[in-house]
Write a structure and sequence with these properties.
With 298 residues, this protein is an alpha/beta fold. It folds into 2 domains: 156 residues, Nitrogenase molybdenum iron protein domain (Rossmann fold, 3-Layer(aba) Sandwich); 130 residues, 3-Layer(aba) Sandwich (Rossmann fold). It contains 11 helices and 11 strands. The strands form 2 sheets. Strands 6, 7, 8, 9, 10 and 11 form a 6-stranded mixed sheet that branches. Helix 5 runs antiparallel to helix 6. The protein is globular. The protein starts with a helix and ends with a helix.
Length: 298
């Protein structure tokens, strides 16, 4: 689950939204002491790479991790490794004028400081932080207006559809990963809790997260706990992390025949890399959730 943690768990904006390396200064995450747009940016996470491309900064990207595969052009960039196996020699050869990292990778700061590499840290604890990260990166790259424009467009898409009462909102369990996919049963499931960015998407789409009272981002729960929660809709994105197809993943849930979601054929297994990246493509996840909830009568 290490990749899961880095890809979709909570990331915190540091120092009011931006943490700066040498020769940089922070002003509530709004500015850096640079006068020219950075021409050699290194992205240290897939969501950061997607943000850079969404801001029209693809040509300024000089390096990405081995996990950065969207958009397809990202595959042509220098690969700097990933997680605990970065190619530091490659990073130094690139000589970046800006590195963008996640809060989880604060161990990189000593390296940046040693070699006087400017950096900022961004996070994705929530949809609000994803949008704020877009604006922080845009401002650090001197394209602040693009970031503000994209932020406004994304916030417009978050406007929830009117729902009269909670009784009209489906109870939703979002499973982001689980043991023994395709084994015919459901074992331990890692589900989206209140501090995951998925929680806000479920609510914006008109649903109620059955784990909204659990502060953890991705608590592990058992099949017995799922039965007690009895969600009206189950969304399983486990296949997005594995080689199993959607039909195989969904077949496991048939073993829990007493669940409302199983009885009413409201178990939905989804796949696609966009489901696991807390970046601008969260709008695609939101659209998928709204489609499912509307189909169920929400």
């Amino acid at each position: 689950m290490r990749i899961l943690t880095l890809a979709v768990s909570s990331f915190l904006l540091v120092c009011g939204g931006v943490s700066c390396g040498k020769n940089s200064s922070a002003d509530g995450g709004a500015s850096l002491s640079i006068t020219q747009p950075p021409q050699k940016i290194i992205s240290f996470a897939p969501n950061i790479t997607e943000i850079l491309y969404s801001l029209g900064l693809g040509e300024n990207i000089a390096g990405v991790t081995q996990f950065c595969n969207y958009p397809p052009e990202a595959a042509q960039k220098n690969r700097i490794g990933g997680l605990a196996s970065y190619n530091y020699e490659m990073i130094l050869r690139i000589r970046p004028d800006l590195a963008v990292i996640l809060k989880e990778e604060r161990d990189l700061v000593a390296f940046f400081d040693k070699y006087s590499i400017n950096y900022i840290t961004v996070g994705s604890d929530s949809i609000d932080e994803i949008i704020e990260s877009i604006q922080v990166i845009a401002k650090a790259s001197l394209v602040g207006e693009r970031g503000d424009s994209l932020a406004r467009a994304l916030r417009r898409q978050l406007e929830p559809a009117p729902v009269s009462t909670n009784a009209d909102r489906p109870k939703v369990l979002l499973c982001v990963g689980r043991d023994n996919i395709g084994g015919g049963t459901v074992g331990k499931c890692f589900a989206a809790g209140a501090s995951s960015f998925y929680n806000q998407l479920i609510e914006a789409a008109g649903g109620i997260n059955v784990l909204a009272d659990v502060r953890q981002a991705y608590p592990a729960i058992t099949a017995e706990a799922i039965i007690r929660l009895n969600p009206g809709i189950i969304i399983d994105i486990s296949s997005a992390y594995s080689s199993h197809n959607q039909q195989t993943a969904c077949g496991d849930w048939e073993s829990l025949k007493n669940l409302s979601s199983v009885k009413n054929m409201e178990t939905h297994c989804l796949s696609g890399d966009y489901l696991t990246i807390p970046g601008p493509r969260f709008v695609l996840i939101l659209e998928e959730f709204r489609r499912i909830f509307n189909r169920s009568g929400c």
